[in-house]
Amino acid sequence: MTNPVTLPDGTPVTARAGLASAVEVAAAVRSGSTSATELLEAHLARIEAADGALHAFNHVTTERARADAAAVDAAVAAGQDPGPLAGVTVALKDNLCTRGVPTTCSSRILEGWTPPYDATVVERLRAAGAVVVGKTNLDEFAMGSSTENSAFGPTRNPHDPARVPGGSSGGSAAAVAAGLTAVALGSDTGGSIRQPAALCGVVGVKPTYGLVSRYGLVAFASSLDQIGPFAPTVADAALVLETIAGHDRRDSTSIPQPAPALSAQLGDGVEGLRIGIVSELSGQGIEGFEPEVLARLHEAADALTAAGAKLDTVSVPSAVAGLSAYYMIAPAEASSNLARYDGVRYGLRREGPNTAAMMAASRTAGFGPEVKRRIMLGTYALSAGYADAFYGRAQRIRTLMISEFARVYESFDLLLCPTSPCVAFEFGAKADPLTMYLNDVCTIPSNLTGQPAISVPFGTDATGLPVGVQVMAPLLGEAAMFRAAAALEGSR
Amino acid sequence: MAPEPDDPVLTRQDVAKVAKLALLDLSDEELDRFTPQLAAVLEHARDLQSFDLTGVPPTHHPFPLVNVFRPDEVELADDVREEALAAAPAVEDHQFRVPPVLGESA
Which of A253, A434, A450 sits opposite B41 (nearest CB)? Predict the structure, then answer.
């Protein structure tokens, strides 16, 4: 059985007893029945007690958080409404820019860098009354599926500290699962929100590409990156997404529409919704799916059927090529985006006799092995003679995948599959890079197509490790996706 | 030249050349380690060849957005020049200082 991290009184950190949801917190703080300060102090005490063992945080912003919570309480006392996230604690993946607070991407090359501006999502959360408690650990520059690639050491899974929390947003997932914060934000380029959410037993959302502004998110692969929430419940995730979504003119890829209304429709059920189980992403033709993960998937399908949805299996043949396409496109974009880390304007510098030597010395000292591998893979995929065969072909597979999913969505409202083929694995179990990459097979298609997807906790394996089920939707199909997620959550 | 399906995918020399292009100084040990790891990823990517992509255009961006325009209006923004320069490894006269671009420092 699992051996979760415990608090000083012996309670497992993963036990939710005594922890209010974000929806409950905001209602209580707005009504004045609880103070934001009191709630914050409870989370800071849990961080103090458990984060030594977990290492979910790179940086805890204790004093800023106390000032923000006090401001929320002062607003309530003065008869003002602090906003829909009043007093809700939020942790930010450490690749989201925070003015005056270090933003490292868990990389030596940005160690000590302090951004001169806030990401749009940070502005929106604070304007809604949320209290930022700190910056969470990640695989360096969000490249990885376990947080083992952090330059500052891995995060541990709260359910079993011998196992990874998933990645790359492993710190955010672990922080929410352990109740160190009410909610958190991550970024998802190939599954980096949904996979750690599944492995830590919390809800994680990758919204439609462009629904949430990327302004202030340190870029990894710009055509795939999207910011989204981690939360203990589907309703909390909906509340956070409603707050951070909506057009931002500082991001030219931001969809010019207001944030969708999600919370109001959560209870509308799934009666009549057509939901397809994607055979290629459920163990047909791709190996490595754990039987218990597939068993939970089929139970989830049964639960949706019982709730009135019409379930069927469906084939998306190009989904099997998603992994290869992703591992050409994402490294190619990364090799371009990470060219900016050159020791000139910010971050680490190692001296050299001339500028080119200084740049190479700085990059060599500042980047860890996985980042170097991806930069080289991307540089190769874009190099003369190979760009057509690798990068170009991958981009055309992407088109094929988009049209296949579009065709499937003519017959289905939503799609279903596991979030991850396996439960949380032990540290070092996937030390070979390709073995680690194969873990992303179920989450990658949504990034390539731009479509939204949510991971919902759905039971555990026999040892008690969480299993996540993924609901996918067409572009801007978040409302129905959240309804199905709520139905799955409610069926447990 | 386009690679043929039967070409050896990646050699140590290829990796050394790519590292140079990417401004990374790799040790011999790193070249030995990275070469088979990257070759395995490229080998896996051979499945990209198994799809008929005749007439399929590339996708650069997943959402059908075109150029984004806004009125050309002057706005006052926060002056963060000092904050931005404070993050630089070396500054001189409000500019980023670097070693010689041509030649070498004495």
Answer: A434
Q: Do A324 and B99 touch (CB under 8 A)?
A: no
Residue A77 in contact with residue A35, Cβ under 8 Å? no
Please indicate whether, in this complex, the C-beta atoms of B60 and A395 are within 8 angstroms of each other.
yes
Torsion of CA A489, A492, A173, A144, to 10 degrees: -90
Nearest to A389 among B3, B40, B65 (CB): B3
Report d(CA A441, CA A445) in Å as an integer: 8
Encode pLDDT of A2-42 as tens digits.
Answer: 889 999 999 999 998 889 999 999 999 999 999 999 999 99
Q: How far is B25 from chain A (nearest CA, A)?
A: 6
Q: Is A168 a catalytic residue?
A: yes
Residue A184, H or E segment:
strand A183-188
Handedness of CA A83, A88, A94, A95 (dihedral sign): negative
Helix (H, G, I), strand (E, B) or coil at A248: coil
On the question of a cis peptide bond just before residue A168, with omega within 30 degrees of 0, the verdict is yes
Contacts of A383 in chain B (CB under 8 A): 18, 21
Q: What is the CA radius of gyration of chain B?
A: 23
CB-based contact A378:A333 (threshold 8 Å): yes
Helical spans, DSSP H, in B1-104: 12-21, 28-44, 81-86
Residue A205: helix, strand or coil by DSSP? Answer: strand
Distance, in Å, from the CA atom of A232 to the CA atom of A41, rounded to the nearest integer, reads 19
By C-alpha distance, which of A164, A184, A150, A228 is closest to A43?
A184
What token pair was written down for A461?
């394996």
Coil, strand or helix at A262: coil
CA atoms within 13 A of residue A407's CA, in its CB half-sphere? 10
Question: What are the residues facing A205 on neighbouring strands?
Answer: A454
**Tokens standing for A262?**
């999600």
Confidence of residue B78 (pLDDT cuts 50, 70, 90): confident
pLDDT at A332: 97
* Paired tokens of A135: 């910056």
Please, which residues have CB within 8 angstroms of residue B44's CB and are 6 or more apart in sequence? A323, A324, A327, A434, A437
- Encoding tokens for residue A381? 């995929």
State mean pLDDT over B11-24.
96
Cα distance between residue A409 and residue A241, in whole Å: 23
Mean pLDDT of A346-367: 96
**pLDDT at residue A134, rounded to an integer:** 98
- Tell me whether A288 touches chain B (CB under 8 Å): no
| CB-CB neighbors (< 8 A) of A475 in chain B | 63
What pLDDT does B7 receive?
57
The amino acid sitting at A293 is: V
